[in-house]
Amino acid sequence: MNEPLDAEMFDDPACSDRAQPFRVGDKWTAMVLRCLEVGPRRFSELRVPLHWVTPKVLTETLRSMERNGFLTRTAYDENPPRVEYALTALGRSLLGPLDTACDWARTHVTEIVEARAAYEAG
């Protein structure tokens, strides 16, 4: 039998919800990271490959990423106004782990699809 879980297991500041960037696992965040990988982009540019994401959800994702320090938002005083989003060093540091996760998913996609099908069937 397993030991009971410790009620204070997440009391360590390194494991608290304030330190853990949970949005990294959000499917839109990973896609935004990929879109910004080569350089700054405007909101309208991000909407092209992310066309199925509503503007509201994309805005929420960008704000969360900015709050977590993954990207910067730069507003230019122009007419019409121009805003660009760019990865920070912290955001750029997520690209390596994202590459690893994508490689893992490509390797195991067949197993994942089979597991999902078995779950749905059963």
What does this structure look like?
This protein has a single domain, classed as Arc Repressor Mutant, subunit A, CATH 1.10.10. The longest helix has 27 residues, at 95-121. The protein has helices at residues 27-36, 43-47, 55-67, 89-92, 95-121; strands at residues 41-42, 71-76, 82-87. Strand 2 and strand 3 form a beta hairpin. It has five helices and three strands. Keywords: DNA-binding, Transcription, Transcription regulation. It comes from Streptomyces polyrhachis. Residues 15-113 form the HTH hxlR-type domain.
Give the helix/strand layout.
Elements: H1 27-36, E1 41-42, H2 43-47, H3 55-67, E2 71-76, E3 82-87, H4 89-92, H5 95-121
Antiparallel strand pairs: 1-3, 2-3
Task: Kindly list the characteristics that best describe this protein.
122 residues; mainly alpha; Arc Repressor Mutant, subunit A; 3-stranded antiparallel beta sheet; extended; transcription regulation; HTH_HxlR
Strand order of the largest sheet: 1-3-2
Number of helices: 5
Query: What structural class is derived from the secondary structure elements?
Result: mainly alpha
The CATH level-2 architecture is identified as Orthogonal Bundle
CATH first level? Mainly Alpha
CATH topology: Arc Repressor Mutant, subunit A
Number of domains: 1
Overall outline:
extended
Give the biggest sheet: 3 strands, antiparallel
Spans of at least 5 consecutive residues whose pLDDT stays below 50 are 19-23
Q: What is the share of helical residues?
A: 40-55%
